[in-house]
Amino acid sequence: MTEQSTVLLGVARPDRIPLKPIGRMRDLRETCPLSLTLRAIISSAKDTVMAAGKALEVYLDLLSQPCRAVLIFLKHNNIPHTVKTVAIRKGDNRTPEFTKLNPMQKVPVIVDHGFVLTESDAILKYLATQYKTAAHWYPQDPERRARVDEYTAWHHTNTRPRAAKVFMLEVLLPRMTGQAPDPSKLERALTELDETLDKLESMFLKRQPFLCGDDISVADLLSICELMQPLGAGRDVLKDRPKLLSWRSRVQAALKNTFDEVHEILYRLQDKSRSRL
Asked: Does this model's pTM top 0.85?
């Protein structure tokens, strides 16, 4: 080995340079540019090996609004994944195997190289961060990110339960009981949903095209999947609201074919509902 090569490798020749104490050598390794570069290469190689390994697994039921939001995000952003269907109506979520994965027995769930995560809000934000998707999905800027967090915090006590209640009263309960929806309960549920829709228009869409700014975010994705759910009973809760209809069109345009592809199961329910009229 030439003297030049030993210098380039950062290795001292004993006949030229006195040996350094071990502690000093450790300091050199931690600050040597070549050492730092090698460590970066090794770290990148580890990430590549991991990415080339087992694809992210997503456990879902497409009749679930949050599941559709997660799947749309994965597909639209070309994140490699394997779908594991959990049919809630068949009790798949209560099996010992799935309960071990998620003791709450709910979907969606993701498993990303051994990392298990539940709750759609957390999953979407994790995916946006871990897979470095376009910044508009979950912005790095503190104020813009806070706006997304603001909506998603409000979403879970407003948009989600109120739209889901209409679907439950018009679709799920009649199928379970064989009885028609209770008119008074349905009217009350629709009134509560109207209050939420008013807030979406007056607060979140007051001066901007999407819920949290000028581009689509995970907030829009969570919201639109909930507001699509009543279509399963043939009810379009946005039909008399031009501002929300325009917003929905913008969301659909941003998501392209993925939106309709993932909502196909809901469109089939809508068709069945119309055929019964």
From this structure: no
